[in-house]
User: What shape does this take?
Amino acid sequence: MRSPVSSPPTPLAPHRKIRHISPMAKRPTKPADEPASDDPPLPIGAPPQSNVPELSVSELANALKRTVEDRFGHVRVRGEITNYRGPHSSGHVYFSLKDQNARLDAVIWKTTFFRLRVKPQEGLEVVATGKITTFPGKSSYQIVIDTLEPAGAGALMALLDERRKRLAAEGLFDAERKRPLPFLPAVVGVVTSPTGAVIRDILHRLLDRFPRRVLVWPVRVQGESCAAEVTAAIEGFNALPPGGPIPRPDVLIVARGGGSLEDLWGFNEEIVVRAAAASAIPLVSAIGHETDTTLIDFVSDLRAPTPTGAAEKCVPVRAELIEQTAVLARRLSGAERRLLDAHRRHLVSLQRVLPAGPQLLMHPFQRSDRAGERLRAALRRALDARRLRLSHLTHVLARHSPQAELARASERLKGLHARLRQGLSARMALARREADGAQRRVDHAEQRLRSAYFRIIADRQARLDRLDQLRRMLGYESVLARGFALVRDEQGTVLRLARDVTPGMAMAIQFADSAVRARAEGDAPPEPPAPPRPKRGKDKTGGGQGTLF
Assistant: This one.
């Protein structure tokens, strides 16, 4: 536990003084195990008494703690909050209560702080209810607060005004955020107490004006849990999916009857105001009477003076709509009759101005008759021209009859046929002579190619024989035929040196005719001596470079 930092007392009004009222009327009793804790202190300079027992500091501090707690118990203290720095890292809250002449340390445990309806603020005058106790670690006394409430309506109104200004600065009360209510909602959601007269007034007014489906979310409209339940109700209605098993309301009504400022304080809480501002469903606030004002009224889309007025704002009057519809239907029918009469009169006036039908068709008939006469004359002239041309073509056709043309074409065809036969015979003879010459050239080329092929094959065979003889002379088979052998290990690697062979090593020895397997025995051969290093100086051969052999 920490003690708040001391600060000079702030001058307050004369009526702000710390008071306590103790409900306990019994006197404190002295514990049986502390016979000497209530003895009067010895005067200064008095000789020590041998019959006074010695107490440790802890025993004396605990005795004082029990005495103070038994004497005062629960008290109510009024004072101004000072040295408030917010909750400690442990969650507990430490501050002081002061008036003009004194200061009292105060502590609020973490579990109590979370359920307080009014949170402590620096400079706020409050009435604290709790238990007086001592803190032996500092030899000081303090109050452990259980409940905290503003000291009078003045402080409560100051807190309300400060909260209203802060939320207004965030833009939660702007008129641009407010939305119009639906003209005729299908479902109306009501957040209120299910046992009060408010819900009955709303239901009766909706039934009288226009019966609608109503969903009631029961909440407490007063007390410490009021703000949390109202917030949960608004968020719960907004969380309903459209078209789900529970219909989503088209408009919400948050209602409560009249009461004092303390009774309506739950609707001034910041969580309620922010939940109403975040609501996607249009919200109507109907808290208290017409003169009562809460912060939810500023953030709601519409404020109703009473819960009954909220029901009237949400739905129209069904009878009035029916009557208005009938009036509009009568007006529409009368307007249709008047429009038809006006069109009929206008048509009659146009009929008087327009000429008769035969007069309108007289000139078109004349133009049609004249066009028919011109068309008949043009057809006669075109027919005469076609007849004249046909007679001319008949005369030309008589001079060039098809029989004469056919006879002349037959003669020409016979001459062409004879000429074609002569030409084909000559060309066939020429082609036959050319074919005989080409065949002789092909036979001669085939003979030359055959002889060249045999010469090339003989040359390649002789070259191949020479290469094979050279291979046999240079190959290792000839070496093996002279009595040498080729030694390989199991992997087929040629073993050239004795130091590559280890005892017990499997080997394959290739002779001239075949290979045999063997295994090495004995010890490993000694390491060969290192080759002699060349001597420095001139080469005895006389050249700049020694012999390679």
About this structure: Residues 402-474 form the longest helix (73 residues). The first strand starts at residue 74 and ends at 82. Confidence is low (pLDDT under 50) at residues 1-40. The CA atoms of residues 173 and 299 lie 5 Å apart.
